[in-house]
Amino acid sequence: MFEQKCGTGILTASMLSLVLSFAAHAEVSLAQANAIQRALLTLDTHLDTPANLVKPGFDIMQRHSYDEDFTQVDVPRMNEGLLDGGFWAIFSPQGPLTPDGYEKSRDTAILRALAIHTMVTAHPDTFGFATEAAQAAPIKAAGKHVVFMSIENAYPLGTDLSLLTTFYKLGVRLAGPVHFKNNQLGDSSTDPEGAKWGGLSPLGEQFVAEANRLGIVLDGSHAGDATVKDMIRLSKTPIMLSHSGSKAVYAHPRNVDDDLLKALAASGGVIQMNAYSAYLKQLPENPQRKEAFKELMAMMDKAENGDMSAKEFEQMQAKRRQIEHDFPAVKATFDDYMEHFLHTLKVVGPLHVGIGADWDGGGGVEGMMDVASLPKITQRLLEAGYTKEDLANIWGLNALRVLKQAEDYAKSLSNHTTAQ
């Protein structure tokens, strides 16, 4: 039977005929989209799912429901949505910029990294741990899900950048300096007090150099525009925005404008499109919901740290379900998400765009509330005229290209040192 290589998979003659027919037919069925996506390496660059691994009652191997426990990623839903894997994020809450604050966050981050490793080692036939770009395709070919590791907010490093080597040895290959607030490394896009450093701090500039030395891709999501510009300017390899959106579509601080998108693309970088509703469009105020969530937030922080009993956790979940019933959230729609996606593609092209929907970290829109719905993105992109090759790049190859460049730069430094 005739076969053609398709990115990291195989495209049969029947699948190829489907692809060729898309040029003549604007409408694409979900079944057709599934057939195409199944042949591609499908990665998401920002999975906050590791936070669920330490929560009572959560089993990554079992199918869950967002309506029941608010989770969005598990193996059955990954299989249904044809998600091969991605970057599983280490996140620990940011506290004060003090030695005690750094140490507490560091310990939480290390425990989260160990939880990811435990998930992989406990299910060796289901997951494959990856530390190099070239490992992703063989893991998919073996019928497993790809587990790269990232760190969202490098606050846990404190002022000791040698800890970045520790996280590198644990498997981290993507790292962002900041989260919601400014820290010791630089300015966030959303700190209510405004900029502190005017971009990266002096320590943040050293952080960039150390990440380059190790072969870790720098992540500019959550960073302020000046911080992202500093990262692009200083980094010896392209950076990634692992879960961001378009400021031209909606002027939220977490999004980036067209000029910055073009600068990112010119440097070889990629933006991965976020599906966090509040960053996609202006949502109506819901003061009753906001008030109801105040008490719940303290409970959620305790659960985030893994300090909650099974009974307490179920009480928290029941309270949240009641809030969702009494004061349901208004979310952006799938069309809103695709507006960001398609605009960004028009600005920088399919070699600089990918997907990082922020699953289990607040992502999800009406019509796409968990990873089971991911083929809808493929369907919409095909209908918009993007090709199988474009989709292969968008769904995984762009992110892997940036990772490979980081790897190659680090190896070049090591080879240079050895030669001396």
TrEMBL record:
Where does the UniProt annotation place the signal sequence? 1-26
Pfam families for the chain: Peptidase_M19
Q: What keywords sit in the KW lines?
A: Signal
* Alphabetized SUPFAM superfamilies for the sequence: Metallo-dependent hydrolases
Protein's UniProt keywords contain Oxidoreductase: no
Q: Which PANTHER family match?
A: DIPEPTIDASE (PTHR10443:SF12), MICROSOMAL DIPEPTIDASE (PTHR10443)
The identity of this protein, by name, is Dipeptidase
**The species this protein was found in:** Shewanella yunxiaonensis
